[in-house]
Amino acid sequence: MNRLLNLLDKNCRLTNEQLAVMLDTTAEKVAAAIESYETQGIIHGYKAAIDWDKTDREYVIARIEIKVIPMRDHGFDEIARTIYSYDEVETCYLMSGGYDLAVTVSGKNFKDIALFVSQKLAPIDAVQSTSTHFVLKKYKERGVLLAEKERDMREDVL
Amino acid sequence: MIDYDSLLAEKVRQIKPSGIRRFFDIANEMDHVISLGVGEPDFRTPWAIRQAGIHSLEKGHTWYTANAGLAELRNEIADYLERRFQISYRSKDEILVTVGGSEAIDLAIRACINPGDEVLIPEPCFVAYSPITALTNGVPVPIETKAEDGFRLTAKALKEKITPKTKLLIFPFPNNPTGAVMRKEHLEEIAEVLRDTNILVLSDEIYAELTYGSQNHVSIASLPGMWERTVVVSGFSKAFAMTGWRLGYAAAPAPIMKQMIKVHQFAVMCAPTTSQHAAVEALKSCGEEIVKMREEYDMRRHFIVDGLNKLGLTCFNPEGAFYVFPSVQSTGLSSEDFCQKLLYAQRVAVVPGNSFGESGEGFVRISYSYSIEHLMEALKRIEAFLKTL
What we know:
The complex is a heterodimer of chains A (158) and B (389). With 158 residues, chain A is α+β, with helices and mostly antiparallel strands. Chain A folds into two domains: 2-40, Arc Repressor Mutant, subunit A (Orthogonal Bundle), CATH 1.10.10.10; 52-136, Lrp/AsnC effector binding domain/regulation of amino acid metabolism (RAM) domain (Alpha-Beta Plaits). Chain A is built from five helices and six strands, in the order H-H-H-E-H-E-E-H-E-E-E. Chain A has helices at residues 2-10, 16-23, 27-40, 76-84, 110-121, and strands at 60-68, 89-94, 101-107, 127-134, 140-141, 144-145. Chain B has a seven-stranded mixed β-sheet, with helices on both faces. Chain B has a three-stranded antiparallel β-sheet with strand order 9-12-11. A two-stranded parallel sheet of chain B has the order 1-10. Chain B starts with a helix and ends with a helix. Chain B has 14 helices and twelve strands. Chain B is 42% helix and 13% strand. With 389 residues, chain B is an alpha/beta fold. In chain B, helix 6 packs across helix 10 and helix 13 crosses helix 14. Classes of the chains: A alpha+beta (158), B alpha/beta (389). The interface between A and B is medium-sized, with 15 and 23 residues.
């Protein structure tokens, strides 16, 4: 039923009836599959893809690379939990390579985020260093193009 | 004043412009029109293919290729035809790379037809076969296919139209505009009729990668006794979403190909070089992309067929291409009236079925090479239109 997940990934507002038609199955089966995905934690939620830049909301995000020092009884997972528990943190990934945690943080303005880093993140014992990069423009998010509006450029030829 | 009418070629002047074209000229003048009319994929060409084209330009591959096409591409096409459809062609003298499938159709007809030869054309079908036949002084002979047969060509209908003058059967499956597909058992029936004749077949398989359900497309050339009389025409436009690259090909026995290549050589020299380099990449590495696009079309197909049937526009379940061909007879309107009224009332553009031959009267062609959201909006508008009738 990966096709169902793919459809929901693109548009989670399709009704079970519509999904059933497209997948050549019944609405009951779709409902059961979705419920099972939810209980298994495969589907965590249903969010709209919003381009906040086009609204009047003050909204700035930054990508922060964090190097940490894991300690006895206090591994990456615990450190990550300490960090991702802040509401300001939108995403938090454990990374391979030059740093350990990649964190996306949002705030009303640059200062908000700078303060969050200096007052909340940097003082955590396990955090060795942080490197903050502000997002200037979003081009594409989760497969959706934000920067350009897609236009049907096909012409009628025959 | 020059009297153009008396100067210009009579045969050409008598060709009617495409019915689809005429209709869309009206639609293009209007605002906020939702089109369900175009006959090309909405997908962009997969990025790896576009990159290959760009790369070939960067390397300076800007010359003509051999008339028949790049040897590497012809090898890939031969491998592909063998791998996908179990038909074998020598890349050296049995495969020709053309400017779209359209050129291949033109070449095949021109290479086969003498004045007065009859060309059997199952209708409804793509609009090019009949005018090209007329330009070669051949005689187009339509064969009506019917909704109750799933718009397939039947042996009976074929036999009825065969005369001593019959030279060529156009075999356009999977079909534009009906979405009809000929499965192996249906092909057997047709092959049985043709085997002991001198009739050639132009098998237009441009939609071969777009068939739905568990069975793959079967080429009529793969049946016993058919390879030697068949010209297979296909291309990259529909399968790889490469319409604008203008790249197709023909595969046929060497004696037929020898004639086709002469016309090709003098008319266009060779297909576009950049496109040929891109097409090599398409065949080498983009099988998965085809599958993804096919799955997407398949979901839309279910969606639009269900939607139209619920609205009372009875819709034969198409098994190939990306069109549905619902009947509008329940509305009491002719194809043209239905399309025109729908366009003016709700600004939805669909194509009248009679543009694809007289037997398309009473039907309209709806393309589902559009996003689900687009199709949803169109269905809403069609529903609103039907309520006013």
